[in-house]
Specification:
The chain has one domain (3-222): Spore Coat Polysaccharide Biosynthesis Protein SpsA, Chain A (Alpha-Beta Complex), CATH 3.90.550. 29% of the residues lie in helices and 24% in strands. It has helices at residues 13-19, 21-28, 47-57, 78-86, 158-163, 177-187, 210-222; strands at 3-8, 35-40, 63-67, 71-73, 91-93, 95-97, 122-128, 135-140, 144-146, 148-149, 153-157, 192-194, 199-201. The strands form two sheets. The chain has a seven-stranded mixed sheet with strand order 2-1-3-11-5-12-9, with helices on both faces. Strands 4, 6, 7, 8, 10 and 13 form a six-stranded mixed sheet that branches. α1 (13-19) packs across α2 (21-28). It is globular.
Length: 225
């Protein structure tokens, strides 16, 4: 069984492999032939449109990993981590929330003022920084069953997603696609959980922008909140 690495990047093919965190990371772990990059270069579409297309095109036996192009893969046991995680959960991430509350704007925050949720509800770890092996943000013990997962990294088996008709919603191009996806998955009784995988994310997110606020309204409207 292989892992298809699905990423939508605005970078050209050359710039992705030469300069992006994910591109450089994938070259580093290229020794593992079970890992197959499926990169969409020069992308101008929303992430769900790309992700859904790749889900439908993927080998029925594949595990799929959806990763942002600004993520360093620090873990050279990457394949093993994902394989173990998906033996325990239907969908895995590296950080998440054990619960979901009304009007929640992100996996880690409990209200639109971006106030952090209680640490007892959070799980997982993600490092942050421009370079690999960045400063670690520890949220809580992992693995743990969750209601919401951070979209910088998500993984699932293709057969699980297509079998349950769990896809991404095209209306959420870059914000709330992960929140919506997790809620859709839970509505179909899929099991979500965090798993210990070493990653460094270069970005801390783009919360509070006008586009984010508009997508937040659309998200709340969709889910009747």
């Amino acid at each position: 069984m292989k892992i298809e690495i699905i990423c939508a990047t605005r970078l050209s093919e050359n710039d992705f492999w030469k300069g992006s965190a994910l591109g450089i990371s994938l070259k580093r772990i290229a020794f593992d032939k079970r890992i197959e990059p499926c990169i969409v270069y020069d992308n101008r579409y929303g992430l769900p449109r790309v992700y859904n297309k790749k889900i439908l095109e993927a080998d029925d036996r594949s595990m799929l990993a959806f990763i942002h192009d600004d993520v360093w893969i620090d873990d050279y046991f990457f394949y093993q981590r994902i394989e173990e995680g998906l033996a325990n959960y239907d969908i895995i991430g590296v950080a998440g929330n054990r619960q979901r509350t009304k009007n929640q704007p992100a996996w880690a925050f409990k209200n639109a003022d971006l106030i952090w949720d209680d640490r007892a509800n959070l799980s997982g770890s993600v490092a942050h920084g421009k370079y690999p092996f960045g400063k670690i943000s520890f949220y809580g013990p992992s693995p743990a069953s969750c209601e919401l997962l951070d979209g910088c990294f998500l993984a699932a088996k293709k057969s699980v997603l297509t079998g349950s008709e769990c896809l991404f919603d095209n209306r959420f191009e870059f914000h709330f696609y992960d929140m919506d996806f997790c809620r859709t998955a839970r509505s179909k009784s899929l099991k979500l959980g965090t798993w210990a995988i070493c990653l460094t994310h270069q970005s801390g997110g783009h919360f509070g922008t006008d586009k984010w606020k508009n997508d937040y309204r659309n998200y709340l409207e969709k889910w009747g909140e």
